[in-house]
Design goal:
alpha/beta, Quinone Oxidoreductase, Chain A, domain 1, 2 domains, five-stranded parallel β-sheet, globular, binds NADP nicotinamide-adenine-dinucleotide phosphate
């Protein structure tokens, strides 16, 4: 089977398509034929090892000091169960699924993946019927991060939420989750992305290159920094007394319940991941070059099978 591997950190050209052996599921695992995966901003950063100095050292100790320990990148996928181990009870052959390969030996830039049906790290669920394979594949990482942080901020009906960097993956999921919860959403992004964020439900928009959001007269219950490019000291100027600031710069620890909730929202028609561009697996270098620009809108999907 085909897979994309990298055995050194660097530019997108370190990614190479190779032939490797198709895996066989253990008794507690399902074998998934991958239909789609994604290029997240995290994939691009791991590949290039582009982190601030202290984070760089920690990431290198975890992911490989001199070269990547895990040669196959990719943090989310959708696909169809092709085989199940004899202890598997929740899934059957033919089920359409979505999940993350967190802590598995292989990432999702591959045609097949074996996944334990239950595990502490990493998630797996039936794919929402409302979503295509491409849409489902880009749901877990940005969606679970947005949901985890909005729950941490105690998102509630009727609140005013400001999302800074609303046009990225986390931001575009956050808009829809906050609207589904009954919040009023103000977004901060480039003028060129106003129509995109409005299509996802934003009530108000502000261009960060023209106006400083912290000079607004309005007060908010939550300021959500979805791109890690603002700060609590700035946000505090527009927060209500009990208001909360959350940021993607914080460590997050979403789990199965977060993916289940996202699938529920998608099934109700309240959440549809925004796809900016779609590439084929063989075009992964171009996909990484695009994500490296830092300008992607929503998500970049990678079609593996169709
Ligand atoms: N903590 C976690 O678990 C976790 C999980 C996922 C992601 N993250 C982190 O969260 C951050 C966002 O990830 P992502 O994948 O959602 O990002 P992304 O999709 O790569 O973000 C790209 C978007 O950010 C916008 N942007 C860039 N600079 C901006 C600025 N100065 N102000 C406002 N918007 C700006 C761009 O719009 P313009 O072109 O209009 O500027 C673009 O649409 C990353 O740092 C990522 O590492 C953390």
């Amino acid at each position: 089977m085909k897979a994309i591997t990298y055995n050194k950190y660097g530019s997108p050209s370190v990614l190479q398509m190779v032939d490797i052996e198709k895996p066989t599921p253990k008794p507690n695992e399902v074998l998934v034929k991958i239909y789609a995966t994604s290029v997240t901003s995290g994939d691009a950063r791991l590949r290039s090892s582009n982190f601030p100095i202290i984070a760089w050292l920690i990431v290198r100790l975890v992911y490989g000091l001199f070269k990547p320990k895990k040669e196959i990148l990719g943090h989310e996928f959708s696909g169809i169960v092709e085989a199940v181990g004899k202890e598997v009870t929740k899934y059957k052959v033919g089920d359409e699924v979505v999940g993350t390969p967190t802590m598995l030996p292989s990432g999702s830039y591959t045609e097949y993946l074996c996944i334990p049906e239950n595990r502490k790290k990493g998630v797996l669920a039936l794919k929402p019927k409302t979503l295509s394979f491409n849409e489902a594949a880009v749901l877990p990482v940005g969606g679970m991060t947005a949901l985890f942080l909005l729950q941490k901020a105690k998102l509630d009906k009727g609140q005013n939420v400001l999302i800074y960097g609303a046009s990225g993956s986390v931001g575009s999921h956050a808009i829809q989750i906050a609207k589904a919860q009954g919040a009023a959403v103000t977004t901060v992004c480039s003028n060129s992305n106003f129509s995109m964020v409005k299509s996802l439900g934003a009530d108000a928009t502000m261009d960060y290159s023209i106006m400083d959001y912290s000079s607004l007269d309005q007060k908010f219950d939550i300021v959500f920094d979805a791109v890690g490019k603002t700060s609590k000291s700035k946000a505090i100027k527009i927060l209500k007394k009990e208001g909360k600031f959350v940021s993607t710069q914080a460590l997050t620890n979403p789990g199965q319940e977060h993916l289940n909730k996202l699938c529920e929202l998608a099934d109700k028609g309240k959440l549809k991941p925004f796809i900016d561009k779609t590439f084929s697996l063989s075009d992964i270098v171009n996909a990484h070059e695009y994500v490296d620009t830092g300008r992607k809108r929503g998500n970049v999907a990678i079609e593996v099978a169709n």
